[in-house]
Amino acid sequence: MMMKIPHIHKIISTTLGLSTILIVFNIPAIAETTAPLSNLSTINSSASNLQVKTRKTNLQWVSSVAEKVIRANGLDDHPWRIQISDEYDINAYASELNKIVIYKGLLDQIHGDDAALAFIIGHELAHHTQRHSAQQEEIETHLKKRLQKEAETEFTHWLVAEKTKSVKPIPVITKEIVKQRIAIQKKQELDKALQSLSRQHELEADEIGYTYMAKSGYDINGGFRIFNLLSRLPSDYTENSTHPPTQQRINALKQVVIKHPWLNLWIDGNQRLTNNSQPLKFTLSEDGISLRINSRFVQ
Fold first, then answer.
1. CA-CA 20 to 30 A from 181: which of 82, 156, 197, 295?
2. Angle at 114 between CA 207 and CA 104, to 5 degrees
3. Which residues contact 258 (CB under 8 A, 6 or more apart)?
4. What's the rounded Cα separation, in Å, for the pair 59 and 133?
5. CA 272 to CA 44: how far, in whole Å?
């Protein structure tokens, strides 16, 4: 997720710190008349603009930047879905399959900043392309099985040790207390491991999201402006946060910029945009609440 969310599982049950990911789509954002798709031609016609112009809706702005990032990075072999949350919160997250949700409050805070928006979109795209949600589920399942076996083994060893100390029967309440103590310890180990994985995924999404943004030709400082915004939030970082501290993310992004020179990325992305100059088409998703950015195969 790009913004701060309670846990990456929020993505699964539904993650930029931006993180672990809720939504009612802003229907007026996609259609200001009684015809839901009446403004799609307007959205498509503006999708190739390089600079932010006055747009009627957040959805038009987000979709135009998103389709460019998708096209510049060769991610247009399949459709993507964009949904704007009507909640005024500073958040965005990757949801379900190939879906990105961005809160209205976040869009308001970065209004007019294409590069900052491109970084957010790139970050959430990275969560999808790197299968972070699936990895989280797979690793959690594996860890639970392993920790359960460890708990059972530890309890058995405790029983054997206690029986060697005394021939008296071990009280049931004592057994239950020991079981609970072991279970709590294993739960803490699980939470710590998943938290570490989530933070690792966030840093990876920051790095890949930056490359997606740069290949699309946007300002190199877009990500830093997002982090500056996050650093001023009261909930910037807590000990149990699924996201790394914002300052750590800033420091890591500085290294990413050195590792991946902007010009090299831009040349690569610009070549794709040149070869595929036709903006991707938009339609209303079958779910009726999100915009679908169609693949390049849709004429």
1. 197
2. 95
3. none
4. 25
5. 18
What token pair was written down for 55? 């747009």
pTM for this prediction: 0.80
* Residues 155 and 141 sit within 8 Å (Cβ to Cβ): no
- What does the pLDDT look like over 235-288, one tens digit per residue? 666 777 889 999 999 999 999 999 999 999 999 999 999 999 999 999 999 988
**Type of residue found at 62:** V
Positive/negative CA dihedral, 220, 75, 252, 233: positive
Supply angle C-alpha 93, 39, 294, rounded to 5.
50
Distances (CA, A) of 134 to 121, 139, 209, 231: 19, 9, 18, 29
**Distance in angstroms (rounded) separating the CA atoms of residues 63 and 88:** 19
**Token pair of 124 as six digits:** 């959430």
Three-class DSSP labels, 140-201:
HHHHHHHHHHHHHHHHHHHHHHHHHHCCCCCCHHHHHHHHHHHHHHHHHHHHHHHHHHHHHH
